[in-house]
Design brief:
Oligomer: single chain
Helix content: over 70%
Order of helices and strands: HHHHHHHHHHHHHHHHH
Radius of gyration: 22 Å
Number of strands: 0
Number of helices: 17
Strand content: under 5%
Length: 368
């Protein structure tokens, strides 16, 4: 929490209203990211009510940015995109380059989350090219987005350097939340890529062991902080690891706990995939009727705009359950839909992977 402590010191020692407003914005954004919803909203209210005529545009831009981050952390991505872009427009009107790049970094992150990978690459690449070396918030966010997007697209060779850049800036700013997110994303993307690779062929057990090590690192760091945002994510990684190890009974127990404890706060697409995984685990244990029921829940929950990898994984699991239930036509249809989504994802990786690989890392980092 060094970042929060530093921002509070800056607020206390601020010599003018502009510095005070910038400190309040840093505090509000951090609290939003940590999941302290009430405190974040209180800080945002303070930004708006204390806005002076001299720094009114700065205050409203900052409030919109903080509101956008809070909406993002509450999984309202369309509102997040709207608020961040309002903040960006006001930062541009002020010709405030540092605030502009911080907003752009968040704009890129939201775009990636919404599946607009080409847009994320363009915006985040521009941020890292233009930002000064001490713009830690903007650079850690933009680099972290480029790392996750590259890794998601199957280019860990590209992602490694961006993860390192994000880590360096997070350390410089005392940003424990970004460090935690980077550790989580390395493990999550690795496990997700292994789950998808397994649909095509056998996977190397050494890769599973490597992902398990990354997951332990993420869990150990996560336990040292008190963030409450995205708490539903970490338990899923243990489940995915158990499934990669064919420990389906363990995965079934963990999934039952996760559905009871975390599914209410998770996106529908995530819950739908979890239900499909649960159906497969139940099938593996010989509980065909329960497996069929979970499969139906998965298909009913899956939103039309779910990501390709979610559809590929869920349809594959449900096709196996349908086949075991004697529903040959349904099994064939689900298997076909799973394969189509996987092929579409592979096409995206083939087309977009080189785009992210072409984004140059600034020479000052000394990274390839």
């Amino acid at each position: 929490m060094l970042l929060l402590e530093a921002a509070r010191r800056e607020l206390r020692d601020a010599s003018d209203d502009g510095l005070r407003q910038r400190s309040l914005v840093r505090i509000a954004v951090y609290l939003a990211r940590r999941g302290d919803v009430d405190d974040a909203r209180s800080a945002i209210t303070q930004i708006r009510t204390e806005a002076s005529s001299t720094h009114y545009t700065l205050a409203i831009a900052g409030a919109n940015l903080a509101e956008g981050v809070l909406a993002f952390c509450e999984l309202d991505f369309s509102s997040a995109a709207d608020k961040v872009r309002r903040a960006l427009a006001m930062a541009n009107s002020m010709h405030d380059g540092r605030l502009q790049r911080w907003c752009e970094a968040w704009d890129a992150h939201v775009a990636f989350t919404l599946g607009r990978n080409d847009e994320a690459a363009r915006i985040a690449g521009a941020v890292v090219a233009a930002a000064e070396a001490d713009e830690h918030s903007a650079l850690s966010r933009a680099a972290g987005t480029l790392a996750s997007a590259s890794h998601y697209l199957g280019r860990y060779d590209v992602a490694r350097g961006w993860y390192e850049i994000a880590r360096r800036h997070a350390v410089s700013e005392g940003d424990d939340l970004t460090i935690d997110a980077a550790l989580h994303n390395v493990a999550a993307n690795h496990l997700n890529n292994l789950r998808l690779a397994r649909m095509d062929s056998d996977i190397d057990q050494r890769e599973v062991d490597s992902a398990a090590f990354e997951l332990r690192s993420s869990i150990n760091y996560d336990r040292m902080k008190s963030a409450s945002s995205f708490r539903w994510m970490l338990p899923l990684l243990d489940i995915h690891l158990a499934m990669l190890k064919d420990e389906t009974a363990k995965a079934a127990d963990l999934l039952a706990q996760w559905i009871e404890s975390w599914s209410e706060g998770a996106p529908r697409r995530v819950v739908a995939v979890a239900m499909a995984d649960f159906s497969y685990c139940l099938l593996s244990s010989g509980h065909l009727e329960a497996a069929t029921a979970r499969c139906r829940q998965s298909l009913s929950l899956m939103p039309s705009d779910a990501a390709k990898e979610d559809l590929a994984l869920a349809y594959m699991q449900c096709s196996l359950v349908a086949r075991a239930s004697g529903c040959a036509d349904e099994a064939a249809d689900l298997s076909s839909r799973s394969r189509a989504n996987l092929e579409a994802l592979r096409s995206d990786q083939h087309l977009l992977g080189p785009m992210f690989a072409a984004i140059p890392k600034p020479a000052r980092y000394g990274l390839p």
